[in-house]
Amino acid sequence: MRAAPTLPLSRSVRLLALLAFGLFVLAPAQPARAFVDRAIGDVVVRDGQTVDSATTAIGDVTVEPGARVRGDVSSGMGNILVEGRVGGNVNSGSGDVRIMGPVAGGVKAGNGNVYIDAPVGGDVDVGHGSIHNGPRAWFGGSIICRSCSMPEESRQMSARPEVTGVAFQNSGLRGTDPGGTDGGGSLIGWGLGTLAFVACSVLLTMVMPRPLASAARSIEWYPGRSLLVGVASVPLFVVLGVVLAVSVVGGPVLVLLVPAYFGLALFGTVATAYFLGRRTLFATGRYRSGNAAAAIVGAVLVAISALVPMVGTFLLCGLVLLGLGATVLAVLSRRRGL
């Protein structure tokens, strides 16, 4: 029986050293406004300070009382607290948003709870999470609730006569507790997304069976190392993207880097699904069902993980990063001829 391939210690050390160099050396080496716009880390706009924007890819953003942001406030992964004034929009990819100071633009949250107790000039657009409104909330646009919840008292507060211009646009708006189940629209969207992922998984299983099996073996043999590499790839990707964006010749490379990274993440997610499907079929005695069946079962399991209350998003992200790291390890092992 052939022994499992191993990644040499020297290669692991060099990889970790490269990640450390990117995190602690390249990340601070940004333009002069790095204290308000950065790739990794928390951003705080202090009382009495006025800045053009306050953004971070991974970290929290805080606009203290008496502070002013002329443009946008955004965080890819982190919480946002606005107590001062914002002249642009507030955007959050994954994290909670609290608006305690006036926002001239809109508020958009992909995944997280939103609490508003101040005037908002534009739309409030929430994907997954909940919307809560305080007594000082005022809306100049629409409240768009895609697959989220809004308690009845917050909905009634939004419909006060003095709150002009509000129109509810929703596919899953509910007046129940945030922990309730999604409405029909959100389930339809989840079902369509699941079908698309199942089709992609089956296609990759048929077109690239050997690379997919190699990545699945990396998950089985090195689960911890695969997850570590996958998690470390996120800040490394962000740092590399910032460096390329501010460099003279980095633009064309950045255009190729972004789709390549997300394509690698998609392949890694399919590898995770394939691994889970194979283990499930083996445990149920149906190990002869074939690779396509394993891909279908695993893809459904990955999709279901996103529905787990409270931790569904983090569980799904963990599965994606696990497969991404396993794919990187499989590529490195193949290049070593193992």
Q: Could you characterize the architecture of this molecule?
A:
Helix 3 crosses helix 6, helix 3 runs antiparallel to helix 7 and helix 5 crosses helix 8. The strands form three sheets. Strands 1, 2, 4, 5, 7, 8, 10, 11, 12, 13, 15, 17 and 18 form a 13-stranded parallel sheet that branches. Strands 3-6-9 form a three-stranded parallel sheet, with no helix packed on it. A two-stranded parallel ribbon has the order 14-16. The two termini are 15 Å apart. It has 338 residues and is α/β, with parallel strands linked by helices. The longest helix is centred in the C-terminal third of the chain and has 34 residues, at 250-283. Residues 1-35 and 171-185 have low confidence and may be disordered. It is globular, with a radius of gyration of 23 Å. The protein is 47% helix and 20% strand. Helix 2 links the parallel strand 17 (143-149) and strand 18.
Structural features:
single chain, 338 residues, disordered N terminus, 13-stranded parallel sheet, 3-stranded parallel sheet, 8 helices, alpha/beta
User: Ranges with pLDDT <50 over ≥5 residues?
Assistant: 1-35, 171-185
β-sheet strand percentage: 15-25%
So what's the overall shape?
globular
| Helical run tally | 8
Biggest sheet features: 13 strands, parallel
Radius of gyration: 23 Å
Number of distinct beta strands = 18
Mean pLDDT: 77
- Helicity, as a percent range: 40-55%
Intertermini distance: 15 Å
Structural class: alpha/beta
What's the helix-strand series? HEEEEEEEEEEEEEEEEEHEHHHHHH
